[in-house]
Design a protein that fits this description.
- By secondary structure, this protein is α+β, with helices and mostly antiparallel strands.
- The chain has four domains: 110 residues, Immunoglobulins (Immunoglobulin-like, Sandwich), CATH 2.60.40.10; 116 residues, Immunoglobulins (Immunoglobulin-like, Sandwich), CATH 2.60.40; 114 residues, Immunoglobulin-like (Sandwich); 107 residues, Immunoglobulin-like (Sandwich).
- Strands 18, 20, 21, 22 and 23 form a five-stranded antiparallel β-sheet that branches. It has a four-stranded antiparallel β-sheet with strand order 5-4-7-9. The protein has a three-stranded antiparallel β-sheet with strand order 2-3-6, with no helix packed on it.
- The longest helix has 25 residues.
- The N and C termini lie far apart (88 Å).
């Protein structure tokens, strides 16, 4: 649209300027131009176009839209965009004279028009979390009963289709071909593969996406006969850049403490508290045979095996540590040299990778077997709310035996003899003639996987029990422990063959 107000005024004044020197001529009568006829409107939900018939002798037209300012145009139509759906707008137009000695401006021609309603798309696509390899997508159909198909394509492949209809046709043809290849009807194949959906559905992209790449999620109505029932609706997103592990300057201080004949603790002190690391023990001969890189790769292979069925964040949070940490282990062999080790762990794509070299302790051997008067030795390997390991080591006179960990309050005020009698009564009531299946014949490390109650006393106990008659063969052996008031989670690490020859 152009404004011609100045042009129109100058054009109208030109005859007057020319006739100023001729006062003897009588002025001709001035007539009014007719108002623009056939004023009409067309439009959609966000635009309106007004048209009218041309007026003879008019040099331009003036119009006002919805009581706005007066605007001039030489055209016989004007279009307005960016309007509000379902809203009424007023419009008026008049013919403007170019010769005011003969014609005056016309009266206004007026009308009103209403924009249409915004058409509702057949589907709404909502994007959730987008990572470097996946995206969460929720599809909500306008018609909950409609069956539909949805998929994701890289933007380049999506744009390669000349039109959305050709993409729909190609997708249907692909499904049809796969159904024929499997000697199935279109419906049978779609139902067997779960290709069509109804109602609101949330998805996580099934295939691994490439990092830092634009993708298009698209959906269209499709029935079980292979007929498209709606237009295609799409939403684009870009994946995050793929994580690349960087070498870390973190150092790890290691110290082996609390050596017994079966257990030891590895105290790890990192130089930074915000990076993950992996720690464990290894047979010295295995370290010599595999080398530092071999040990790191063996541990990473195990981590990545877990990650393949879960995700990096979950597995590393369970199997690795940050900050100061003490790792306990109680399955060592006698007269054997071991080495404690640790190395930094970071994320590289979907996998875990090393961020530091391998840090190791000096080789160590366990102490000689400890004696004692108890027929069953109870050693607390680790103790906490979410990480409790207790090892029971029987002498020959205590085999077979029973062991348990429970709240001390269950035996409040009872003597050792009464605790043993109460536990045997419970064992018989719960298992009857099958109680012997609960008995152990060798050393056993009890690992508690369910969190314990904080700031609570527990009792770990064991006693010999005959497997031929329901009779205790030793006295009660026990250890009383109290859990801390609060503690973060800690999960043990698998042996990975590092402690086996």
């Amino acid at each position: 649209m152009k404004k011609f107000r100045l042009f129109c005024v100058l054009t109208a004044l030109l005859p007057l300027l020319v006739s100023c020197g001729n006062d003897s001529d009588s002025p001709e009568p001035v007539s009014q131009l007719p108002a623009p006829a056939s004023l009409a409107s067309t439009g959609d939900d966000v635009s309106l176009t007004f048209t009218w018939e041309a007026v003879s002798e008019a040099k331009c037209y003036a119009y006002r839209f919805n009581e706005g300012e007066e605007v001039y145009t030489n055209e016989t139509s004007v279009r307005f965009e960016g309007l509000t759906p379902s809203t009424q707008y007023a419009f008026r137009v008049k013919a403007v004279s170019g010769d005011l000695t003969r014609w005056s401006d016309s009266e206004w021609s007026s009308t009103s028009a209403t924009t249409g309603e915004t058409p509702q798309p057949p589907f709404a696509i909502t994007l959730g979390e987008v990572t470097f390899y996946s995206a969460e997508v929720t599809v909500t159909p306008a018609d909950p009963s409609m069956t539909y198909f949805c998929n994701v394509l890289p933007r380049a492949e999506f744009d390669a289709f000349p039109s959305e209809q050709e993409l729909i046709d190609a997708q249907i043809a692909q499904i049809t071909g796969a159904a024929e290849l499997n000697a199935m009807s279109f419906e049978e194949f779609c139902r067997s593969m779960g290709l069509l959906f109804t109602g609101t559905q949330s998805f996580v992209t099934a295939e691994e996406l490439a990092g830092d790449t634009e993708y298009v999620e698209y959906v269209f109505g499709l029935d079980y006969s292979g007929k498209a029932t709606s237009e295609l609706v799409s939403a684009s997103f870009r994946t995050k850049p793929e994580p690349t592990v960087q070498p870390s300057s973190m150092t790890l201080g290691l110290e082996v403490v609390d050596l017994t004949d079966v257990s030891a603790r590895l105290q790890v002190t990192p130089s930074t508290a915000d990076e993950y690391y992996y720690c464990f023990f290894v047979l010295r001969e295995n370290l010599d045979a595999l080398g530092e890189e071999g040990i790191i790769n063996l541990c990473l292979d195990d981590l990545n095996e877990h990650i393949s069925s879960s995700d990096y964040a979950t597995v590393v949070a369970e199997q690795c540590h940050k900050g100061n940490y003490t790792f306990s282990y109680a399955e060592f062999a006698a007269n054997t040299e071991y080495v404690g080790f640790a190395f930094g762990v970071g994320q590289h794509g979907l996998r875990a990778a090393a961020t530091t070299r391998l840090f190791t302790t000096e080789p160590f051997m366990l102490k000689d077997a400890a004696g004692g008067d108890d027929p069953i030795r109870i050693e607390v390997v680790s103790w906490g709310i979410e990480n409790a390991q207790i090892k029971f080591i029987p002498t020959s006179e205590a085999v077979p035996y029973r062991c348990e960990l429970t709240k001390l309050a269950d035996f409040a005020g009872l003597s050792d003899e009464e605790i043993l009698a109460k536990d045997m009564e419970k064992l018989w009531n719960d298992y009857g003639d099958y109680y012997s299946m609960m008995l152990l014949n060798e050393s056993f490390t009890m690992t508690r996987y369910m969190p314990l109650d904080p700031d609570t006393e527990y009792i770990a106990f064991a006693y010999g029990l005959s497997d031929t008659e329901f009779k205790a063969t030793t006295k009660l052996c026990k250890v009383v422990l109290r859990t801390p008031a609060a503690e973060g989670s800690s999960v043990g690490v698998r042996t990975l063959g590092l402690l086996r020859r």
